[in-house]
Amino acid sequence: MLIVPSEKENTWNIYDAVDNSFLESKLVIPYDRRFCGSSNGWLGTVNEDFTITIYKPFPLAKEKSTIHLPCLFPPKAEDSEDEEEEEEDVSEEEEEEEEDEDEEDVMSNIGETYDGHVYKALITTDPLANPNDCMVIVIFGEFRDLAYIRPAKDTKWTRINVKWPLYDILLYKDHALYAIDNQRQLECIDISDPCNIKVNLVTTSRDLSGCVKCYLVRSSKGELLQVERHLDSGEDGVTKHQTTDVRVFKLDFDGSQPRWIEIKSLDDATLFLGDNSSVSVQASNFVGCYS
């Protein structure tokens, strides 16, 4: 099932991809803000105080549908005055008024950024079915840093410190976090020990000409796939959401160095690609799916 925005506020249409039709019933979600993540049946959203809420829109009977997570490294409230005030020309009362106004402006600007504070959020497994294995991993902040939390174990977020973050894509596979940065380099990040996080470069950057959106997918066979979706940039240089070409690559470990090799067939697989998470299913197991 896919949820698609409707014209009514906080109400979503439910789309059945197998039958290629919308259900008559609607889904009402009690949040009027952007969803920063969606995986394993859960949605993530950032609150005004920079705490994060993950929400399950289709809970089972008597099942908890909301989990509240702590504050995620909010931007610092720094006063950036560039000019010095001439004390002899300004009274103490005027100074206090200006300081109050500056503080209000700074806090107002920070409040406006909460909705976009998290670029992407990944929920590794259902936190109710597998609480001890669940992690919420996020790309956040101006420099697209990484952080994670284990809802059943941690009371605060752990930042993954790397020299040059700017991450764009995440995938959790076989207890390892795979991430692609804005240079299209693939890194494997071992976060099993919060005190000794290891970052290993798997593949170097690839030359991608034109406008290309990439996705990471774990195939039903356990292979790591990267899908390139080439978009029409248009004559005016403005990117259009029109796909002109799709290429699929598999991470090959046979040589001395892992490398991406292009594949021409998905065999019995169907891929569902999304901004936050992508899924591969065996086509023969689902009516209406094609490889």
From TrEMBL:
<feature type="domain" description="KIB1-4 beta-propeller">
    <location>
        <begin position="31"/>
        <end position="289"/>
    </location>
</feature>
<dbReference type="InterPro" id="IPR005174">
    <property type="entry name" value="KIB1-4_b-propeller"/>
</dbReference>
<dbReference type="Pfam" id="PF03478">
    <property type="entry name" value="Beta-prop_KIB1-4"/>
</dbReference>
<feature type="region of interest" description="Disordered">
    <location>
        <begin position="73"/>
        <end position="105"/>
    </location>
</feature>
<protein>
    <recommendedName>
        <fullName>KIB1-4 beta-propeller domain-containing protein</fullName>
    </recommendedName>
</protein>
<feature type="compositionally biased region" description="Acidic residues">
    <location>
        <begin position="79"/>
        <end position="105"/>
    </location>
</feature>
<dbReference type="InterPro" id="IPR050942">
    <property type="entry name" value="F-box_BR-signaling"/>
</dbReference>
